[in-house]
Amino acid sequence: MIANKQHRLLAALALGLCGLTAQAASLDGLHFPHAQITVQHEQAEALRIYPQGTLRRVSNQVRYEAQIRAEGRLQTRTLQLPNGQQDLADAVANARETLHQLGAELLYWCEGRECGSSALWANTVFGNAQLYGPDDQQSYLLYRLPEPAADSLLALYAITRGNRRSYLHMEQLDAAEPLGELLPAAATLLRQLRERGELVLPLSEPTGAWAQRLAQCLNLASTMRVRLQGTGADAWQQALLAQRVRATRLEAVENTDAPLRLLLVR
């Protein structure tokens, strides 16, 4: 029964997010069976600051480890899931998988207490007190949508409150100006590598910023061994060695007929 529910939810998400990618400006295709919309809002012009790190309050000031600041058209939607935490976990997992398949780039992902204060997420980031709950019952994901919507960000925040009611908040911001280069957080790259066993790298030729970020990711797990495979593997290996990633941790298999991937060896 749970498997059937997950299958229906994934199908609905895939259908909706295909429409989202094609239209590059809409959450209307996202459907969650039996979920209740509690808040829905749209602004022609809005400023959003999306964190890429733990949220804390220091000396009465909200501190972001890193952030993405953008202005543009904002659409928000908050849903209450019908059966609490289990439905919420399924919804987030299926949304994450669907967005991955559609080519959206995950810029930041945190879960539980590593996200920081739920009160700050609810009130400071999203301005919705309904989203406040225990710090260990939250998750947050921030995506950059694929072309033709590459100047759009999609944020998802999930929380199960103390009364066991679960909410999924979604925002899409279509930036008025080009977003330029945005790099995923190092810890987010590592989380994806561990979960999937691979990362698809966006460039066949490494830039200094990307090489540094990937080296930061690998150095968070200092005993992990990886293999670079595909077009540009040798160049990436040299760039990572220049960033002081140990040679014993890196393999490279150059293949001009395959996209570049970073594979987890151990």
From TrEMBL:
It holds the Pfam family DUF4892. The keyword Signal applies. It comes from the Bacteria. Residues 1-24 form the signal peptide. Keywords: Signal. InterPro entries: DUF4892 (IPR032608). This is DUF4892 domain-containing protein. It comes from Ventosimonas gracilis.
